[in-house]
Amino acid sequence: MANRQNQHQASAGEKTSSRRGLTRDAAVAAICGFVVVFMVGAAYAAVPFYNWFCRATGFNGTTQVATSAPSAAPLARKITVRFDSNIAGGLPWKFEPEENEVEIRIGEVTTIFYKVTNQSARTTTGQAAYNVAPLTVGSYFEKINCFCFTEQTMAPGETREMPVVFYVDPSIVKDSDNDTLNTVTLSYTFYPVRDPATKPLAASEVEKSKGNDKGNEKGNL
């Protein structure tokens, strides 16, 4: 009789231990799942923050966006700006600068052009990433206008000249790290855009669309 009781108690203890083990495993799995979800969410949140940080500080050679030309006259000191172009896989474009380099005065507003050709038989969209080298120049390289600010959609076989309007901020001469700087390389890489943003209709197109709708309504009457 005592043996049966002992066996029953042992069996009950095993079941209780098993239930505790399952509960502990479920808790560990839930915690792991929460950590994974949190890390993925943090990664997505970090992307816009990282982009904002780079634009604000010039970190990693990220160039700046200027709203106007410098108020002061260009300096006598000159600098050579070289131009680099690259295409990521999956984008059937030809992309190259119209001139490999220019020599400009610091603070001088300059316009150069890149030529882009869609070599495929379909409409494709790309977005250009950019930086300058050496990386310490990023916070002084100012762009007033650039094709890299927006997505670019190219019709089959289309060729387009894309401008870049820029200057090197005169405050760079106060940075001792750039005392011996005489050459800067501006580099672009076009990446394919799988789901391009829908562009809003221009006002004239909206009015034209409304006119067509009214005409269709009259025809139906």
Produce the secondary structure layout.
Blueprint: H1 2-57, E1 64-65, E2 78-87, E3 93-97, E4 101-105, E5 110-118, E6 124-133, E7 141-146, E8 152-154, E9 159-168, E10 183-192, H2 203-220
Parallel strand pairs: 1-7, 2-10
Antiparallel strand pairs: 2-4, 3-5, 5-9, 6-8, 6-10, 7-9
List keywords for this structure.
alpha+beta; five-stranded mixed β-sheet; globular
Describe the structure in your own words.
The protein is an alpha+beta fold. Helix content is 33%, strand content 32%. A 5-stranded mixed β-sheet has the order 1-7-9-5-3. It starts with a helix and ends with a helix.
Rg from Cα: 30 Å
- Biggest sheet, in brief? 5 strands, mixed
Sequence of strands across the biggest β-sheet:
1-7-9-5-3
Number of strands: 10
Overall spatial form: globular
Helices and strands: which structural class?
Answer: alpha+beta
Give a brief outline of the structure.
The chain is an alpha+beta fold. The protein contains 2 helices and 10 strands. Strands 1-7-9-5-3 form a 5-stranded mixed beta sheet.
